[in-house]
Every structure is written in C-alpha cells, then in structure tokens.
Known about the structure:
GO terms for molecular function: 2-methoxy-6-polyprenyl-1,4-benzoquinol methyltransferase activity; alkanesulfonate monooxygenase activity. By secondary structure, this protein is α/β, with parallel strands linked by helices. The strands form 4 sheets. It has an 8-stranded parallel barrel with strand order 1-2-3-4-7-8-9-11, surrounded by 8 helices. Strands 16-15-14-17-18-20-19 form a 7-stranded mixed sheet, with helices on both faces. Strands 5-6 form a two-stranded antiparallel ribbon. It starts with a strand and ends in a 6-residue tail after the last strand.
Amino acid sequence: MEIGVFIPIGNNGWLISTNSPQYMPSFELNKQIVQKAEKYNLDFALSMIKLRGFGGKTEFWDHNLESFTLMAGLAAVTSKIKLFASTAILTLPPALVARMATTIDSIAPGRFGINIVTGWQEAEYSQMGIWPGNAYFGYRYDYATEYVQVMKELWVKGVSNFQGKHFTMKDCKMSPQPSKEIKIVAAGQSGRGMEFASQYADFNFVMGVGINSPTAVAPANERLVEAAKKAERDVGAYVLFMVIADETDELAQAKWDSYREGADVDALAWMADQGSKDTKADGSATAKAINLPEGAVNFNQGTLIGSYAKVAGLLDEAAGTPGTKGIMLTFDDFLIGLDNFGEKIQPLMKTLRPLLRPRKLQCLSAQTPRYFSHSMRRAESPSQQPATNNERTTHFGFETVAEAEKEARVAGVFDNVAASYDTMNDFMSLGIHRLWKDHFVRSINPGLSTTTTPSAGWTMLDIAGGTGDIAFRLLDHATQINNSPASTITISDINPSMLAEGRKRSLATSYANSPRISWLVANAEKLDTIPSNSIDLYTVAFGIRNFTNKDVALREAYRVLKPGGVFACLEFSGVKNPLLDAIYKRWSFGAIPLLGQLVAGDRESYQYLVESIEQFPKQEQFRDMIKEAGFVVPGKGWEDLTFGVAAIHKGVKPVEKL
C-alpha cells in the first residue's frame, strides 16, 4: 500500500475556517513538506490546480501557486518521492502538457505523473474567457479522453496525428520522450468519472467519507473496481483522508470542534453556489459531495480524529478496505502533522512494512542483532511462509512474498543503499568486485569490429546498471582498446535513486553529458522502449538475483538482442569447496549485516542482499535458464571467479533465429 500527501498549493490548505492555521502558499513551505514526506518514506506528493478562490474572511484559496512550476522545483530538491502535478485541461493543450511532463521527468526521472482535472468550478474559467458553456459538464470526460490519448501518443511515439472531435493533431512532434511511463491520475467520483478513470488512468483518488469511518469508502471503491473489471484494467483506489491527531482523543476532537465553529460561511456559500452549477453531477460527484453540511469545512474529506494510536488504527482499517491500494493524506497543520505522522503514527501502523519506515525508526525497532552463529542457522534453514491467498509468490531473501510486494521492497533496499553501493559491494566481495568487473569487461571485449557489430560501434544495454560502474568500464574499453568511439550504451535501472547516483558519478568521467550514454528507468522484465533485435551487448552485473521473474527478464534480453548479440551476466554464485563455502557464509550472514548497520545504519538492507545470494540459482541451474530463454551458451556456460564466490555467464542469440 502506498501513502502520499496532498500538498497545500493554496492558502490555508483544506480547512475553510477562521480558527484553523492560516498561511500563504510558497515554494519554501511545500519544499519543507515534501522533504519531510520523503524523509518519512511517503511514496508520493500531489498538488492540485486552482485558478480562483472562494473569498470570505479567510480569502480561502484566493492565493495559489501553479502546479507544474511548483512540482518542477520540488523535483529538483527531492530524490525518491513520486510527484504529481495537476493540469486543468481547459487551460493548456495536451501537446504542451505532454512536453511539460517530459521536462519534469528529465529533472526527476521516473518520478513524475499527471492528475487530470476536468473542472467543476465555472468561475475559474469564465474569468479568463475560456469557459465553453455549461454544456461542457456533459462532455468533459469525452474531452479528457482525447486529451490523454494525445499525450500518450506523444510520449510513446514522439508524434501524433490524432483526429478527434475536440483535438486534431497534424504531424505533432515531441522529443525527447520520458524516461518511464508517465502515470495518469484521476479523481472522478461520479459514475462517468470513474468510468473515465478505469479506462485511461492508473489511479483514481476517492474521497474518504465521514468522521472516523475509514471503511465507509467501500462502496466507492467497489464502483471503481467494477468499472476497472469492465475495462480489463487494474486501476487502484487511493483514498483521501484528513488527519487531525494529538496526544489524546480529547485534544484532537477539540481541534476539530474549533475548526467547525470557525467555519468561513461566506467562502462556503460561494463554494456551494459554484457546485450547484454542475447540472450533470450525480449524487457521488465532487461538486455535490464537498458541499454536504456536516463536513463542508474541509470539503467533506474523510476525517480521522484522535490520538496517534487511534489514527494509526483507523489508517490500518482504511488500508484493509477492499479496493484500497493507497491513501493520500492532508493535515490541519502540514509541518507538525507530517512529523507526528512519521514519528508517532506510522510506526504503529501494521500495514506499513519495515522497509517503508524512516531509517532511524527502523534501527530502533529492529530485532535483537543476529550474531554469527544465529545468522548461520538462519542461512541453513530458510523459513518458507505459506501464501495466504492466490497471489503468485516469490522470494525476498528468505521470505516468501507476493510478486507485487517484492518489487516495492527491493526498491526500498536500493533507495537506502544507492549512495553507498560500492561500499556494499566491497563488503559483499571483500573488495574483489572491482577486479571481477575489470575481468568481466575484458572477457566481453566491447567495441570489437565484427560482421555483426561493424565499425559503426556497438549498441550496448547495461541492465540494473544505475551507478554506471560497468557502463563506464565498457565505454572505456571500447574507446581505448578497440578504438570504437561510436559505441554507445543505455544504462537502465528500475530504481531512479540508483540512476541519479550514476548521473552524479558520470560528471567526474569523460562521458559527462555525452550522447554516448543514455539513462532509462525501466523494469528488466518489460523493456517496452527497447526495440527488438536492436542491441549488440546486454550486460547485467550483481542485479539479476533481485529480479522478480528471472526467466521473463532472460526472454526479454533475448528479444532486444540482435542475432549474434551477447548476453553477459556477472553475479554472486555458489562456492564449490565445502570448507570455503562455510567460511564465506559465516562472513556473509554474520559480518556483512553487522557492518551494514555500523557503517550505513541499515542492517536490514544488507541482510536481504546476502539472503538474495543464497536464493540465487547455482551455476548449472542459471546456465540452463539462459539456454531455455533461447541462447546458445559457450563451453560449460560460466566462468567461476574466486572459487565460485561470483561467476560470469554468457549466452549468444543465434544468428539464424530472428
């Protein structure tokens, strides 16, 4: 489950009250909010778009920032959290918004998405002379459908000739394309809104309901799930709640009572007038729901009020509601509220995995350290947890987890170790990994002119190569040994934090800002942006053991390689000598996690990494997997390094098989 924050792009956040915290929006405020959210390992931050406020004594939302500009700035001062800007689709053409999104993606690769706002407040648009008339309420989702289709064409193909009722493109071009699919968010509450979300969005935000009734959202979730089933898509419900918490239930309730007593009636009246103009709104539509009298002071968001422990329990209930895949939070006071959430609420939640907690809390809540003998027993007797449902399972270290969960947990590990990745490999290999990598590259001999890779240079793809350690070596060898300055490489990683570290390191090389290197956030099991039969060399070093479906990744490697192209993998493997194997395991399971805690403050990530080595197929098994993917393997299929602590595996795509 993901948790995010709905940041206050307008003054006073989401409380229309003279008694609530009063503040103006600013980049500095939102920077502090999003950096706190990132510190506490929240998954995303979303900003709305608001073009006219409600007035009243509080001048509610009369002061607003612009969403895309704000999120571009926040992209530059964050490294992990996903960011969503909102586009009011009546104000900007889709081709321009597609380019704006790609620009922010270049600042925060793989971390950006767009919230589609069709608009319910006529005055926002009529003040600028762009309101198409109230008939728009009847066709706004048709308009939004074409809008999204144009953007997706440009992101995927780089050109659009879309011909629709509302938009006509004529050889409309856009480059560059985003590094990863731009996610689309919707927030339709009406039947038509949910139908649109089920067909064209990746997530749909659903308004929570009532006071301390986290499961009351179930009917709305069910409507979204049913719509998604009809569309044959998996669209998650992300539920919006306001958190008002304090040390005791009584203190929290007193805050809420005060906010309601101070309701800005003039601003609320203006909001109600605007909502009444949507003649096509059904009973579930935003324009209707926000004006219900019992909670209009905060737009009738689902509101969770109580002590920190009580709110944690309520959030767990919300997370357990069928159809809920995420939660988006607002607070009465964002800076204080986020600190309270991160330090006092989140640690009490049962639905958040340990890897999603802040690192300092992770260390405090860790189990008693496993010393050498304890760790060895765990290594020799991995516990297998039975699946609790029909989900496909895989291994996360020695744990058995759902496939969908593994990807998120592996991402958490590499978010934590990105900056200390070489230090991690030093621990894992006693420093020898640098020699292994040099030998690995020499054994490939990249850049050599052959019949399948002529002097035009090699097109190379380094998977799970975020820090650039292998890629820089490959280019050095191609250039300096084989005189192939035309050889190029794409460095691909599923984890944007690893790629960010690689980009930073590239600045200290001769390849800084070079067209010979490109960066791609992608899952090795689904390299949609890499054409078939286009790559001369596919490398993966110390990465494939973390893949959820290794066989799928191998088949994808086969697809993208040219006939005659080479698959080359460097990975930790199995030590053959029993005595040496026992010594190495004692080092791995005893010392490495302890050193990880002492040096990086992160025992759990390093514990997972050594467990992942133990779970990786041994040399013969992995060779057979490579052959099953279609490759021809040279010789016995692998080369052991340092008694088998690591091994190099290679496969060649047959020339005759297209």
